[in-house]
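Exercise 7. Given the encoded structure of a 309-residue chain, write a plausible sequence.
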């Protein structure tokens, strides 16, 4: 079995009829890049940047974040590194951020909502991300999006931050890509409008399952009611992919469901372009994709291959 997996290293991830799927890694810490590379990740599809915040005693500085992002970008070379902006909230609490108690933290003040109402916090991260983009193939990804306005507001802050860096003669990738996490039902319903604002979609099936089925992802007692194989969730995934392709952008999955081998054929059939999974899941998925008999035409992606570069 191990030998079979080793034989998959260096191979392309494509179906038997030649359609390429990107297989990226999910990471939480810069040091996880070692495992991503050892398992032949073709990129980082989700860098959960909140670990930098959860493990700090105080707000992580621009310099600290810059070093972390740059290290990941450098080690990945040309390969894409998709960094998700801050996704803390009432369930992922940090001592130095005095968040009020909430009865329903999953429905509360978190992620992009914090970034848009406390732009001074967002700007520190954006400066670090943009500066690091000069050292590799970094893309920015926004979590918990529910409306077009949120994306426009975030883009405005990103543009202002770029302008600030230009004024200081600090280099960054002027063409940095910006993607949206599809993890709320609202974002699926608005997917056509959102696709027009973004370079790619990545579906967060953990939260999408929670919000679609009204099942708290932290509650272990919900059992079969919290089934991510529910047709409601799978239809949402299909709707997001179809909207992305109508607008010429690629769509991946970075939630846990992406690594579920019983769904690989379905995802290929739906037309998924990228799967981002924990490093250990990459080679088994590559094996499954290479032996899949699902046939499907490649979508036309406006920014080239399903790759944020
Ligand atoms: C998700 O919601 O599926 C996701 C990838 O993000 P997280 O698990 O970090 O909320
Ligand atoms: Mg999520």
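Solution.
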């Amino acid at each position: 079995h191990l030998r079979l997996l080793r034989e998959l290293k260096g191979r392309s991830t494509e179906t038997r009829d030649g359609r390429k799927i990107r297989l990226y890694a999910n990471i939480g810490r810069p040091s996880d890049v070692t495992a991503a590379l050892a398992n032949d990740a073709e990129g980082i599809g989700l860098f959960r940047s909140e670990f930098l915040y959860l493990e700090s005693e105080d707000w992580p500085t621009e310099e600290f974040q810059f070093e972390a992002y740059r290290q990941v970008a450098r080690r990945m070379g040309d390969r894409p590194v998709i960094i998700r902006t801050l996704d803390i909230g009432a369930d992922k609490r940090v001592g130095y951020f005095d968040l009020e108690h909430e009865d329903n933290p999953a429905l509360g003040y978190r992620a992009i909502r914090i970034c848009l109402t406390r732009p001074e916090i967002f700007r520190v991260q954006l400066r670090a991300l943009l500066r690091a983009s000069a050292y590799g193939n970094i893309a920015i990804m926004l979590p918990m999006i529910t409306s077009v306005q949120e994306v426009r507001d975030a883009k405005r802050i990103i543009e202002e931050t770029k302008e600030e860096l230009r004024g200081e003669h600090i280099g960054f990738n002027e063409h940095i890509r910006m993607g949206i996490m599809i993890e709320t039902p609202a974002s699926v319903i608005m997917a056509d409008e959102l696709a027009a604002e973004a370079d790619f979609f990545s579906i967060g099936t953990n939260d999408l399952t929670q919000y679609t089925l009204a099942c708290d992802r932290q509650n272990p007692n919900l059992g079969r009611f919290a089934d991510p194989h529910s047709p409601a969730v799978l239809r949402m995934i299909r709707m997001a992919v179809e909207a992305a392709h109508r607008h010429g952008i690629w769509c991946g999955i970075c939630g846990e469901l992406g690594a579920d081998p019983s769904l690989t054929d379905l995802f290929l059939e739906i037309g998924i372009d990228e799967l981002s999974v924990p490093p250990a899941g990459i080679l088994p998925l590559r094996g499954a994709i290479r032996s899949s008999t699902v046939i499907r035409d490649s979508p036309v992606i406006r920014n080239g291959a399903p790759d944020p570069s």
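Remark. The chain is about 40% helix and 15% strand. Students should compare their own answers with the one above.
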